[in-house]
Amino acid sequence: MVRLLAVVAGASLLSGISLAAPAPLQHTFAAVPSVQLPRLEDASIATLLEGLASSAFSSQQLTQAYLDRINDFDDIRATISINPFAIRAAREADATRAALGGAPVPRHLSLLGLGFLVKDNIAIPSEAGPTTAGSFALVNTTVRAPSTVVQRLLDAGAVLLGTTNLDEFAQAKGASLGHLLRASTDILHPDQEITRGAGALAEVR
Questions:
Q1: Considering only CA atoms, which of 77, 159, 76 is closest in space to residue 112?
Q2: CA separation for the pair 89, 134 (Å, rounded)
Q3: Which one in 2, 19, 128, 157 has a CA-CA gap of 20 to 30 Å to 66?
Q4: What pLDDT is stored for residue 48 in this prediction?
């Protein structure tokens, strides 16, 4: 996955308030035929794009595999939201690639069909989900437009999977929408609760 980090300045509106944890992610998508995929834990962008280009697997299959993995490890709460239109976007990417009839993908679509996640303080299209910066206060807000970096990834054909967890406003205050994550491989401090998003998913093997 492409992991993008950003820091948003702002006051912690709900610091110290005890709130119930959000319900586990539950997403149901159409069945996708099984296929041999690279190990998602360490597959490079180049490897995934090569697989898509050679039709070893489709964008829909790759996207479904990532969504399944997110759900499998939802207990570590590495993600805050999932794009409900991710599979549709993946199918559109597959259709675009098929329409090329085997011709090379145009340079402006260099990430065609490749999934990505962004921190929840980087604005995503409002139809794809909220941009909360990890704050309960922003759950029902909508952004006027996605951030430049997200828009450029979408313009390059990438598929937005969702947003990853972070401490509220990335301030390490301890209270956030996604709640505290426990790192499974924090050997030095096994009992210490810390906040991580994409890093937590990267640790899972």
A1: 159
A2: 25
A3: 19
A4: 97
DSSP 188: S
Place of tokens 């430049």: 148
Tokens of 50: 């090569």
Please name the residue that has the structure tokens 């992991």: 3
What is the C-alpha separation between 135 and 179, in angstroms, rounded? 10
Q: What is the pTM of this model?
A: 0.73
β-strands 3-4, 159-164 pairing: unpaired
- Residue 85, amino acid: F
Task: Give the Cα separation of 130 and 70 in Å (integer).
Answer: 18
The more confident residue out of 160 and 176 is 160
Round to whole Å and give the CA distance between 184 and 200. Answer: 8
- Which stretches of 4-147 are DSSP H helices? 45-53, 59-72, 86-99
103-111 contact pairs (CB < 8 A, 24+): 105/53, 105/157, 108/155, 108/156, 109/156, 109/157, 110/49, 110/156, 110/157, 111/45, 111/49, 111/153, 111/156, 111/157, 111/158
